[in-house]
Design goal:
Strand content: 5-15%
Radius of gyration: 19 Å
Distance between the termini: 38 Å
Strand order of the largest sheet: 1-2-3
Helix content: 40-55%
Number of strands: 3
Structural class: mainly alpha
Number of helices: 6
Largest sheet: 3 strands, antiparallel
Shape: extended
Order of helices and strands: HHHHHHEEE
Length: about 150
């Protein structure tokens, strides 16, 4: 927050790459942005999750998935954040249970056979990059996977 509000200088070269990427995405997507610090006391769930991730033992917290990256993901992140929905339509897709939700979230047009129940169910999904996630009240985002 302090870096994006230009209150702090960035010394780490990798962090500086992320900074420029985030600034470019923010400036291209929004006319005006306000970045605000939320104290940990007002965001208890995120504080608990960060503590779980930093203190995780191998045999505990099976519901918490953790991945250690061997190299910075700045190039992969840049591709995912700059990817537009139109780019996804040019690549052939395998049709599976996620296809109608992905197409709906990208275009805003529900399938022809969609009813109010389907639309209510579709509201529980979101796209991050090329990945479909299911969100629930008071839950973490769940990545949707297919048999492939």
């Amino acid at each position: 927050m302090g870096h994006l509000n230009d209150e702090f200088h960035i010394k780490d070269p990798i962090l500086l790459q992320y900074y420029h990427l985030v600034r470019a995405v923010i400036q291209s997507a929004f006319e005006q942005v306000r970045i605000e610090h939320i104290p940990r006391t007002n965001n208890i769930r995120v504080d608990i999750l960060s503590k779980l991730a930093s203190t995780k033992l191998k045999s505990h917290h099976r519901s918490l998935l953790q991945q250690t990256l061997s190299t910075p993901s700045i190039t992969n992140t840049f591709h995912n954040l700059t990817h537009t929905p139109a780019d996804n339509m040019t690549h052939p897709q395998t049709h599976n249970w996620t296809t109608p939700y992905i197409q709906y979230l990208q275009t805003g047009n529900p399938p022809q056979d969609a009813d109010k129940t389907w639309l209510a169910k579709a509201a529980r999904y979101t796209m991050i990059g090329d990945d479909l996630y299911k969100r629930g009240y008071g839950q973490l985002l769940l990545k949707c996977v297919t048999a492939e």
